[in-house]
Every structure is written in structure tokens, then in C-alpha cells.
Specification:
Largest sheet: 5 strands, mixed
Helix content: 10-25%
Strand content: 15-25%
Distance between the termini: 51 Å
Order of helices and strands: EEEEHEH
Oligomer: single chain
Structural class: alpha/beta
Number of helices: 2
Length: 127
């Protein structure tokens, strides 16, 4: 049977060539969208389990069991599962309809190479 390894929301992902990764995260262009996907590291296409506004995602345990089943069909012995939306800060963002300033602290972008040093893209020098 395919093993499930559940990580905490901010744990780093292990090298994945031999693992399927189940990840729940915020949408890139919509901070209120929650995306749940399984990544098979190029051996098979990424599989989206649910895409929708916050609250519309499949229940996490259902996603974990679906990932176990899909990984087993593809020959993976392990699924590494992480819900990136489950942290305290992230839950606050969800509760405030995607407002990342709701935590009361200034957010910082660590993408120095991209030239963004503030809490929003408006701080980017190229805008």
C-alpha cells in the first residue's frame, strides 16, 4: 500500500523523484483560490483535484486518499502531503478573503532577484 507522509504547512518538500507530492496552495493569480494538486515529477502529468474559491476545495482527507490511489496506480510507494493553506497566517488570509495584510505585520517579498522588495507588486521597480 502507498505510504502517506504528511508535512506541516511550512515544512520543506523532500527531493521528489521517487515521491508523489500532494500539495494544497493558494492560487498564483487569485489569493482566495485554493488549488489542490498531485505532482508526479514529470513521470506523469500534474493532476488537479480541485480548483475553486476558498471553501470550495475538496476536503483534505478526501484529497489525501485520492492521491494515495492515483500514486499507487502509477507505481509510487509514497505520497508526501502538505497543506500550504493550513498555517496560522494562511488561515487568517483565508478568513479575510485573501487580504494578506490582515495579520497586522508588513509582508516582505524575498524575491530580490526579481527586484521586488516590498509587500506588493506595486513596490517592484519595473511597474
Amino acid at each position: 500500500m502507498t505510504e502517506i507522509v504528511e508535512l506541516l504547512p511550512h515544512d520543506p518538500l523532500p527531493p521528489g523523484a521517487h515521491n508523489a507530492i500532494l500539495i494544497r496552495r493558494f492560487g498564483e493569480d487569485d489569493p482566495t483560490a485554493v488549488i489542490t494538486e498531485i505532482d508526479f515529477y514529470g513521470a506523469h502529468p500534474v493532476m488537479l483535484l480541485a480548483v475553486g474559491p476558498a471553501g470550495a476545495a475538496v476536503p483534505w482527507e478526501d484529497a489525501v486518499q485520492t492521491a494515495r490511489h492515483e500514486a499507487a496506480l502509477r507505481g509510487y510507494a509514497r505520497v508526501v502531503a502538505v497543506d500550504r493553506t493550513a498555517g496560522k497566517l494562511e488561515q487568517g488570509v483565508l478568513a479575510h478573503d485573501g487580504d494578506h495584510s490582515s495579520a497586522g505585520a508588513a509582508l516582505q517579498d524575498t524575491d530580490e532577484a526579481g527586484g521586488v522588495r516590498g509587500s506588493t507588486l506595486l513596490d517592484a521597480p519595473h511597474l
